[in-house]
Design brief:
The chain is of the alpha+beta class and 276 residues long. The chain has twelve helices and 14 strands. Helix 2 links the parallel strand 2 and strand 3. It binds flavin-adenine dinucleotide. GO terms for molecular function: FAD binding; oxidoreductase activity.
């Protein structure tokens, strides 16, 4: 099936992109890598009057250290997350996560901003950003705001982004000496979306564990984290997952199977976080 799109415009600057979005009166969306949007247009899951192409905007590119954060431009592609030396040094969780995303062709076009805006509950990067305590920088013609990752994802393919806003960059706290980063997931085949996945960060403040594939959005396992961070056992933390996670059954896995996998991943990730 062919996509249903009435128009296409290549933004020449961020202001131009805001003007294009504004003039289309809610009937336009930005396109970055196109890896999720084009599929959904082809399947007629969405229909747009105008695609605003932001791929060529230099303001959305670049990876650099500033003010205690690694700033990642929204157009950072998954393949860059996997290979950039600054990412490997300062946020190894993202370097570990990127190769788990889809296949090489998708990773060479798909972008960080696109993945976060798309908010697929089984995607790796949204959960990583919650585990890392990252902040998402978004801008519109009215100005800029920073949204903590834990309040950015609101539900199935739904975020705190307003229609007129574009993700500019993400600020991720730098890994300190002694911190550990681990991501693990269980998939049917390599490159598939995870049935269940877990991103974990251990720092002087304790552990942060963010699950993906278990709900309509990534979930911080708050009860299990409380137990682990107050010296409790992994068995008790696994038991607390009953209260933290409320997965649903779907054609890929039953809710009970997802609960089982979540417990398996908790044990594996905690071994890696404490031994690595
Ligand atoms: C077969 C297949 C398998 C996949 N498997 C996985 C997987 O295992 N894990 C995973 O995480 N992902 C997976 N993906 C999705 C892939 O990672 C996409 O690249 C990503 O989700 C979207 O990035 P994009 O740049 O292509 O965004 P696009 O497709 O261009 O856009 C996606 C959405 O984000 C919006 N958007 C894009 N950029 C911005 C921005 N800067 N500001 C505001 N809104 C923006 C668009 O308007 C659109 O609504 C898969 C995709 C395919 C086709």
């Amino acid at each position: 099936m062919k996509a249903s799109v009435a128009g296409y415009a290549r933004a020449q600057s961020l202001d131009h992109a805001f003007n294009l979005l504004h003039s289309a009166l809610g009937e336009a969306v930005v396109i970055a890598g196109g890896q999720s949007l084009v599929a959904s247009l082809n399947l007629r899951l969405s229909e747009e009057a105008l695609l605003v192409d932001i791929r060529h905007l230099p303001e959305l590119r670049g990876i650099g250290v500033r003010d205690g954060f690694l700033r990642l431009g929204a157009l950072t592609r998954h393949v860059e997350l996997a290979s950039d030396p600054l990412v490997g040094e300062h946020v190894p969780l993202l370097a570990q996560a990127a190769p788990l995303i889809a296949h090489a062709a998708i990773r060479s076009r798909g972008t960080l901003g696109g993945s976060l805006a798309n908010a697929d509950p089984a995607a790796e990067l949204p959960a990583c950003m919650i585990a890392l305590g990252a902040e998402i920088l978004v801008r519109s013609a009215q100005g800029e705001r920073r949204i903590p990752a834990h309040s950015f994802f609101e539900g199935l393919f739904t975020t705190a982004l307003e229609e007129s806003e574009i993700i500019i960059a993400v600020d991720v706290p730098l890994k300190a000496a002694g911190d550990q980063h681990v991501i693990q997931e269980l998939t049917r085949r390599s490159g598939d979306y995870a049935i269940v996945g877990l991103a974990g960060v251990k720092s002087v403040n304790g552990v942060r564990l963010a699950y993906f594939g278990v709900s309509d959005k990534p979930v911080l396992a708050a009860g299990a984290m409380d137990i682990l961070n107050s010296g409790g056992s992994i068995d008790d933390a696994v038991a607390a997952l009953r209260g933290d996670l409320d997965p649903e059954s779907d054609p890929h896995a039953s809710a009970e199977y997802r609960r089982h996998l979540a417990a398996v991943l908790m044990r594996r990730v905690m071994v890696d976080l404490t031994n690595s």
